[in-house]
Amino acid sequence: MLNSSDILKTINIYFPKEISYDSLEYKSSNEFLSRIRKQEEVKLNNSYKTHLYLGIKNIFHKYEVGDWTDMEAFNCYEYRILLHQNQPILDDDTELMKALEGKKIELFLFVSVLSKYYYFFTNETMIDLTSGKWQFKKIFDYPEKIKGEIENLKVFFDVDGYNKISNDIANEVVDNIETELIEKNKVKVFNCLFTDLILI
Amino acid sequence: MELHSKDDQFDTKVTKTLNSYQYANGDPVNNVDEDGHSIFSSSVAFLRSIQIAAFAVTATIALHVYQRSVISDSISKVSSSAASLIKAAAKKVTDKGKAKGETSKVTDRGSTKARDIITKEKKGAINQEFPKEWQDSTLNEIEKAAKQGNKSAQKAKKLLNDKRFDKGDNRK
After folding, report:
1. Taking Cα atoms as reference points, which of A31, A154, A98, B83 lies closest to residue A39?
2. Residue B10 within any structural domain of the chain
3. Whether A91 and B168 lie within 8 Å, measured CB to CB
4. Which residues in chain B have their CB less than 8 angstroms from residue A136's CB?
5. Domain that includes residue B130, residue range
6. Inside any domain, residue B139
7. Are the beta carbons of A140 and A121 closer than 8 angstroms?
8. Fewer CB within 10 Å of terminal CB in chain A, N or C?
9. Which residues does chain A have within 8 Å of residue B124's beta carbon, measured at their own beta carbons?
10. How far is the C-alpha of B126 from the C-alpha of A182, rounded, in Å?
11. CB neighbours of A137 closer than 8 A, spacing ≥ 6?
């Protein structure tokens, strides 16, 4: 069972405390430089990226898997799995929403590059096709219909030594840490291990 | 001075000699015999030379006028083709200008509101994380606030520049 203190130790290796992100001190800190080095290492490891992507694609073979990884900016591999069978991902997401009659369900999957942790949640997108108004909802669970795939995903990550972060731990606020996009004392474990562009 | 052939208009009444091979009646200073058949005094020759000169001037003027008309015609022809060229060039410049205008409209992203950039360039999915408070601000305003350390402005800026949310970016 994962405990947050181990995760916090990991976070402390890569995030300096009590220093403003925009300062030179932050950018020259050992923690920040370690993080950059880690990202660089991972960027060079294309074989693991391919292994990960193909593994996930294989598990979710009934669905389309989009690779949303942006290693330049964030600390994770990121995938969006469209949980609608026989529906390709379209270039224009409004067209995709039309094809899905206004409601899209995806699994957002994050795999940390800082340490062996992963996390996912279900994301619902709705659009009023008349007004064009978008609505979004994060559900911190997975739909029953992908239970088998989630079990296979766990096995896949177990083999590679990865642990899933629980919702409680993901939502824990990390004190005195600031990221590029989130102010001090609002940063959560999820933002440190994966991305600070998405709020949970 | 003697002629090489006999002067058939030789008039003994006005000549001082019977030598029909003689040039200008033996007085080349006062007389001229241009074609070798008659003699004229120098004054007549002078008048004739004026006539010739006048003719020459007239001819020159006529030629000049002709040339001018030809040149003018040519100029007008050249002008007309030059005008077409200039027109074509001007059109090109105008078109380029228009294109530039369009480009500058496209590249004038800074003064465009975030909401409009999103509608035009981004996938609807961006709206999930885009900070609401910056939707009606221009990119320049967002960038300025981001520079001053405003975190939500930094997030807005990052999202607007995030290629993953570009329309047509089909991630697979």
Report:
1. A31
2. no
3. yes
4. 127-128
5. 112-165
6. yes
7. yes
8. N
9. 93-94, 97, 125, 127, 134
10. 17
11. A123, A124, A126
As a whole number of angstroms, the distance between CA B122 and CA B112 comes to 14
CA distance A165 to A4: 9
One-letter amino acid at B107 equals T
Tell me: the pLDDT tens digits for A60-97? 999 999 999 999 899 999 999 999 998 888 877 888 99
pLDDT grade, residue B108 (50/70/90)? Answer: confident
Place of tokens 């008048």: B47
Give how far the C-alpha of residue B110 lies from the chain's centroid of Cα atoms, to the nearest Å.
Answer: 40
Q: How many CB atoms lie within 10 A of CB A10?
A: 18
pLDDT value of position B150? 96
ipTM score for this prediction: 0.93
> Residue A136 belongs to what H/E stretch?
strand A133-139
Q: From CA B64, how far away is CA B68, in angstroms rounded?
A: 6
The CA distance from A135 to A125, in Å, is: 6
Establish if B86 belongs to a structural domain.
no
To which residue do tokens 């996930």 refer? A56
Q: Are A119 and A165 in contact (CB under 8 A)?
A: yes
Tens of pLDDT along B124-142? 999 999 999 999 999 999 9
* Number of domains composing chain B: 1
In a domain, B118, yes or no: yes
Burial of B81 (0-12, 13-18, 19+ CB in 10 A): exposed
Q: Is A141 exposed, middle or buried (CB count within 10 Å of its CB: 0-12, 13-18, 19+)?
A: exposed
